[in-house]
């Protein structure tokens, strides 16, 4: 495969250097799986981020075309493409932030755990390379099942002697983004003003919205709580499967109109959520104060070794993990269910690397 760095340098070395200088104060970010459904819009949005000076786009297919396309955007980040495993290490050297949406997405009827067999191996290989090339980078893991891929990453880094629990973050921002949107819809609020903490993990019942802690303070009927909890937990399935099937109704003329029906899972809202989270990580790296978001991280908030809750981000990644706060009875019951499922997913990830 062509070495895209060479192609880029050959075709305009002076200009590339010039742009690199202009943007030298920013951060270096790599996206692994950059040619995929999430990867492409994520790459586009990161190219628009003024905090990014260098953007590395890596994939096992189609990286050259996506890189050429993104590189034409007139924003300051310098874009370089990397294709195939032999260029993985080049893609990673010197990176401050590595975002991983590599892997296969869900199809109708699949749970996130069904993706384990393929994605576990992909995340393991990528993390082995991160351990060799940029062990100090902040790592944002999007590949599902996040409940297991984050423990996999941690095990790989432990084996390599470079594990820093502050730097490995599972991206659960999409659950928060969905929760903010659905709560705003019901309460007639501007979604930008709504903040719903979503804790636990990133799959089914492990996604636990804490509706008693919504800001601005809202009071919901039990019917609204049931509706919102179910919709936030199954928001991904709304995209993966025809809505008609979820609602068990058959009056949609063409269910494909209302969902992807086998053509993939959430990509556009996910890219938005990933950028919101990555931007928060970069602002924290820059030294901004009070950068607080939910993320799935190594944690002592519960007896489980990994858990999603609000964390404060700083120059070293996760600086502080906040406790869950007061839960009502409904949320305490949800927490027990979530922990039971999470424990199995964590163990599965750990065993995959240790075996
Ligand atoms: P996709 O299939 O459209 O794209 C995945 C990309 O990864 C493809 O371009 C593929 O070539 C690439 N890839 C495969 N093996 C690779 C390897 N070894 N190294 C580098 N790249 C590799 O899938 P999509 O829709 O972009 O989803 C990606 C992942 O994100 C899936 O696992 C999906 O379940 C997950 N996801 C996570 C969410 C979250 O909230 N954390 C939300 C939505 C999806």
Automatic annotation (TrEMBL):
One of its GO terms (cellular component) is chloroplast. Coiled coil: none annotated. It catalyses: (S)-malate + NAD(+) = oxaloacetate + NADH + H(+). Keywords: Glyoxylate bypass, NAD, Oxidoreductase, Peroxisome, Transit peptide, Tricarboxylic acid cycle. InterPro entries: L-lactate/malate_DH, Lactate/malate_DH_C, Lactate/malate_DH_N, Lactate_DH/Glyco_Ohase_4_C, Malate_DH_AS, Malate_DH_type1, NAD(P)-bd_dom_sf. It is found in: Peroxisome. Its EC number is 1.1.1.37. The active site is at residue 202. Substrate binds at residues 106, 112, 144, 178. NAD(+) binds at residues 33-39, 59, 119, 142-144, 270. PROSITE patterns: MDH. This is Malate dehydrogenase. GO terms for molecular function: L-malate dehydrogenase (NAD+) activity. Gene3D superfamilies: Lactate dehydrogenase/glycoside hydrolase, family 4, C-terminal, NAD(P)-binding Rossmann-like Domain. One of its GO terms (biological process) is glyoxylate cycle. It comes from the Eukaryota. Its main location: other. Homodimer. Residues 172-241, 258-352 form the Lactate/malate dehydrogenase C-terminal domain. NCBIfam families: MDH_euk_gproteo (TIGR01772). Belongs to the LDH/MDH superfamily. MDH type 1 family. Residues 28-170 form the Lactate/malate dehydrogenase N-terminal domain. It is an enzyme of class 1 (oxidoreductase).
